[in-house]
Specification:
Dna Topoisomerase Vi A Subunit, Chain: A, domain 2, four-stranded parallel sheet, single chain, alpha/beta, about 775 residues, elongated, four-stranded antiparallel sheet
């Protein structure tokens, strides 16, 4: 006995063990020649109980207990007090292992076997009567009235002391660490690991939080190792290191060794109990946690799942369609491929959805789509599991990273994948050659209505948008391409979307605001609406207001009611820029036009030859999508390389969008063209577009033009009433209430006085008889 206990760094006093005698041999049906020793048991409160087990020498099985007795949990002396001090308790197989760990300061309890936390022998409580069996081989029992608790006890059939242990751990918020033997292979045997997983499921079902259930797998050198073996061989200090590591680990729940088989065997049952459904769901959840991370968006509470193996960030939505099928998504496909769970398992999916959003641990995430910025670096998603980081460092201009590196996570399914090796080779090729702006060459093949400077401005915009959105707070404009049918509006966006997203998806005009919300909140990169015709004036005004707010908001978002409730609101981030095509200008609000770049196309009067593959041909002309992406990233690197020397945080801009002027100027420098014309051209392009889209403004410009002809060098002063009287007799403007109503016109002129001065040359000239007076100056020439 002493020799056997010494091998586990124990003495007989540690277990209060005694040599076996004939009464114990008789009770356990051992021969009177059997040698061994008796291990007495006590309860959680250190009180002796009338139960023991016998360790036998040279007899199998090695451990015996009295015939007809239930399984018990072994509590070493003082384990409860020690567990309260440490904040955890270990559960293992065997009394010696538990006693050894507790002796060296690691609170541990022991089971008679890996499955012995429950009973195979059912002890019927007092008051239960046997009844006649209705079917062959069935034993029927009759419970007394009011015996719900007895029924629950019979169904659960926990080992004696297990219920007390679970209540203690739950009430004192302790962590339960399952530590079974490690095999010579360095792994836990299949059946042992299965038992550990089932024990974990039971502990969670009975109230332990998921993150308070962990498994410690001890490292093995050459032979099988258990708790007492490891402490004896390696020392208590090294064992304590492993305990601390597993307690600090984010997830260490015991994994089922064959989760797909376990789930599918359970799902074959026609009827699942509530407990079984929870257990299956929990097993899947634990496997998800072991192979990835559950995440919640810090802005709108959307749930995500990040797979460690594939590096995919998937929106974890488990919604049903109108016909009760599971919505097809990246995450639903993952559940089917890994665990065989489909839309026919809706009860299981219901539990999984609840547990996925409620069980700790859940981390927070800021999911990105297609592009994002951090500091002075630009990040571009090349596939679901990788992205490219571009900076201004000449020694390392670009880096291919796994999704999730440095906390940067891109949502899956937003771009057509590019092979990492292929894009790296294309980047090396691009960086080894002089930079030639391809967009300038492409735009020469576009039916632009305006000048060479406009062509260059648009080309610079295409190098900036959407790549530099919110870089150092930069606000990029709304893009509008206006032109008659067949002028090539959609083709330009098909080329840009083909480069950025890999798929040229042009969206239809929304039918209502919620339709539009759904599109912009799920998109990244560039959101293009094709052939916009805003018939609904209310929808047009609301969309215009929303786009104005989103473009200039520091953290753009859309605020909606959550789950159609009256009070709860959710803020959904917007990570896209707006583009649109139209035959006629769809929006006339000054606020929106000042935040826009309008690209006008002119089909001309001569015969036109159409190239149905224009976008594809322009893509292929420069080497395909991968070469185009490399070219765009090369331009960004050149831009970022100039930042440290040329960027000024004190720059005072004349354009209302933050940093837009300076970004244009720096991108022009990166593209190797002069930039001294940009400020005036950008400014005048904006006011020109505003003036052409505003009937009242057009009338004021016409009044100023006619008035200058009769000035003859004299100063002309006039009031809003003078202009209104002129408008009433002008056929073109007589129906413009904004011009003919004196009060409305006066307010309009005060609101837009800067733009009037710049474009029409109308400036304030004081007051006369309490009337605001105006005069004319020569306006700057508008470049077209």
């Amino acid at each position: 006995m002493v020799e056997d206990l010494t091998a586990s760094s124990l003495s007989p006093e540690d277990l209060q063990a005694r040599v076996i005698e004939n009464p114990e041999r008789a009770a356990t049906r051992l021969s009177f020649s059997t040698q061994g020793y008796v291990i007495p048991y006590r309860n959680l409160n250190d009180e002796p109980i009338p139960f023991y087990r016998v360790k036998c020498f040279d007899v199998l099985p090695k451990y015996k207990q009295s015939i007809g007795t239930s399984n018990h949990v072994y509590f070493p002396k003082g384990v409860k007090k020690l567990a309260k001090e440490k904040g955890y308790i270990i559960i293992t197989e065997g009394e010696k292992k538990a006693a050894c760990a507790t002796k060296y300061g690691f609170p541990c309890v022991g089971l008679g076997g890996v499955d012995s936390w429950k009973n195979r022998t059912l002890m019927l409580p007092e008051g239960v009567e046997l009844a006649n069996a209705k079917y062959k081989d069935n034993l029927t029992v009759k419970l007394p009235a009011g015996s719900e608790e007895i029924a629950t006890e019979i169904e659960s059939s926990l080992a004696v002391g297990m219920s007390d242990l679970i209540d203690f751990v739950v009430n004192d918020h302790l962590t339960m660490v399952i530590c079974y033997d490690t095999d010579v292979s360095g792994k836990v045997k299949y059946e042992v690991q299965r038992a550990a997983a089932v024990l974990g499921f039971e502990l969670r079902f009975r109230g332990l939080p998921l993150h308070h259930i962990k498994q410690l797998v001890l490292p093995v050198d050459r032979e099988k190792v258990a708790v007492d073996d490891y402490i004896t061989r390696e020392g208590a200090e090294r064992f304590g290191t492993h305990i601390r590591r597993v307690l600090e680990s984010r997830v260490a729940f015991p994994r089922h060794p064959n989760i797909r088989d376990f789930v599918n065997k359970k799902l074959q049952k026609q009827k699942l109990t509530r407990k079984e459904a929870q257990q299956i769901s929990l097993s899947v959840l634990c496997e998800l946690d072991s192979t990835g991370t559950r995440l919640r968006s810090e802005s709108d509470d959307t749930m995500y799942y990040f797979s460690t193996a594939t590096k995919k960030l998937m929106a974890a939505t488990l919604r049903r369609t109108h016909n009760d099928a599971l919505v097809d998504s990246e995450f639903s496909r993952h559940l089917y491929q890994e665990y065989g769970i489909g839309h026919s398992d809706m009860r299981l999916i219901g539990w999984l959805s609840t547990q996925f959003t409620s069980e700790a641990p859940i981390d927070t995430v800021r999911p990105n789509r297609v592009t994002c910025v951090r500091g002075d670096s630009i990040f571009y998603q090349i596939n679901d599991g990788q992205y490219i980081k571009v900076g201004g460092d000449t020694s390392q201009p670009f880096t291919v990273c796994d999704n999730g590196t440095d906390g940067i996570m891109f949502e899956a399914g937003k771009v057509k994948p590019i092979d990492a090796g292929e894009i790296q080779e294309a980047l090396r090729t691009a960086f080894s050659k002089p930079f030639v702006p391809w967009w300038f060459d492409v735009l020469k093949d576009v039916r632009l209505k305006r000048s060479e400077k406009t062509l260059q401005l648009i080309g610079l915009l295409f190098y900036m948008s959407p790549w530099l959105q919110r870089w150092r707070g930069t606000q990029l404009p709304i893009e509008m391409i206006i032109g008659e049918a067949g002028s090539g509006k959609s083709s330009i966006y098909m080329l840009r979307l083909g480069i950025i997203h890999g798929e040229p998806i042009l969206r239809n005009a929304p039918q209502d605001l919620r339709d539009w919300y759904a599109g912009v909140t799920s998109a990244g990169g560039l959101h293009v609406t094709d052939n916009v015709q805003m018939v609904d004036k209310n929808l047009k005004q609301r969309m215009s207001d929303e786009m104005c707010r989103i473009v200039t908001e520091p953290y753009p978002h859309i605020e909606l009611r959550k789950f159609y409730t009256e009070a709860d609101l959710v803020r959904i981030p917007v990570q896209t820029l707006f583009g649109m095509t139209a035959i006629n200008q769809p929006f006339h609000n000054v606020d929106l036009l000042q935040r826009s770049v309008v690209i006008e196309l002119d089909k001309g009067e001569s015969d036109v030859e159409y190239d149905s593959q224009w976008a594809q041909n322009q893509m292929a002309r420069f080497g395909g999508r991968v070469a185009w992406v490399a070219h765009q990233l090369h331009a960004l690197h050149r831009f970022l390389k100039l930042v440290s020397a040329s960027w000024s945080d004190k720059y005072r801009s004349k354009h209302r969008l933050v940093n837009l002027e300076q970004t244009f100027m720096l991108m022009a420098q990166a593209c190797g063209i002069p930039n001294d014309w940009i400020v005036q051209h950008l400014q005048m392009s904006t006011v020109s577009v505003v003036s052409e889209s505003d009937w009242a403004f057009e009338g004021l410009c016409e009044y100023a033009k006619q008035s200058k002809k009769g000035m003859n060098g004299t100063e002309l002063k006039f009031s809003a009433g003078t202009i209104a009287a002129w408008a009433e007799v002008e056929e073109e403007f007589a129906q413009c209430v904004q011009l003919t109503n004196v009060r409305s016109l006066g307010r309009y002129m005060q609101t837009n006085k800067q733009m009037l001065a710049q474009v029409a040359g109308i400036i304030s000239a004081g007051t006369s008889n309490n009337k605001a007076m105006f005069t004319l100056k020569t306006p700057p020439k508008v470049n077209r």
